[in-house]
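Recap from last week: sequence in, structure out.
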Amino acid sequence: VEYLPFACDPDLHHLTALTEENRRAYASDVVFVGNWDEEREKWLAELEGYNLAIWGANYWGKRCKNKFLKSCWKGRTVIGSEMAKVCLSSKINLNILRLQNKGSHNMRTFEIPACGGFMLTERSEEIIEFFEEGKEIACFSTPEELREKIDYYLAHPELRRKMAGRTYQKVQQETYFKRVQQIDRK
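Predicted structure tokens:
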């Protein structure tokens, strides 16, 4: 048995050109791209008052109990180039781990940086093994820390840009093609 982490698919997750129309359609201070679950609702409910956008499946409309979050939900999912436009247009891209991923990572760990987005992620031992906190990514472990980091990084756009550039470069080596090559070498 050998462990193989998630990666990014450069055909789906890549830099893309943005028009002014794209920026108007997709821009937000804070964005979450992903499906609903109770854990994610709990974290995002802490962000009332922020310019938050949520892109995800209809579970946000059907199961979410928080009125603020329902008002932030864009009514659908985004994938591929459209997801890249959301990541690039938004100032902060949140990565919230599901309960089964706690202490580990998920696909967004690589997808957000591959799209060129600045990532504020729930802290885990494994994510810290992939990226340097404070240099490549920002992390949070509590609702208070989440809000503090959002406030800090909203006030520092140049730092966000530099960190996003570093993680973008790093994930270019973390593709599913390279993961398949690892399997083939065994």
